[in-house]
Amino acid sequence: MPDGIQIDTEQVGEFAKGMRADADSGYASAADRGALLHGHGVVFGANIPGDTVFAAKQRYAQALENTEANLRAYHQMAIIFAQVAESIARDFANVDMSSAAAQRRIDALVDGAIAQANQVMDDEGLA
Q1: Model confidence over 38-81: pLDDT tens digits?
Q2: For the chain, what are the domain ranges?
Q3: Helices then strands (H, E): number in the chain?
Q4: More exposed terminus of the chain, fewer Cβ within 10 Å: N or C?
Q5: Could you count the other beta carbons within 10 Å of the beta carbon of residue 55?
Q6: Coil, helix or strand for 124?
Q7: Are 117 and 80 in contact (CB under 8 A)?
Q8: Is the pLDDT of residue 1 over 50?
């Protein structure tokens, strides 16, 4: 048995379906709902003067912004990993998985997906 990644393309296909569902409905809808719900800004304590309430509102606004950035990043990363899993399941379903060439191609696909996901995190300031 060769070193490297051993792939069960049927399970990769199932993973791809789940990740695609998360990307298309889970993370996407959560990010959209969050933006809609918080688009008006932080309104609590609007009639209460003072630095303490103002500071709390700022921290809350920052927490909302971070949460929405995470959801956007998770959505983008779910798409990346769904695409690579779909590609592996499709392209390698009938390939000799013990061949070194197939292993190198899969390694490259996975490494590329990880690099793309890391770039998403960097772009969102999450790294």
Answers
A1: 777 777 777 888 899 889 888 988 888 888 888 888 888 889 99
A2: 9-123
A3: 4, 0
A4: N
A5: 10
A6: coil
A7: yes
A8: no
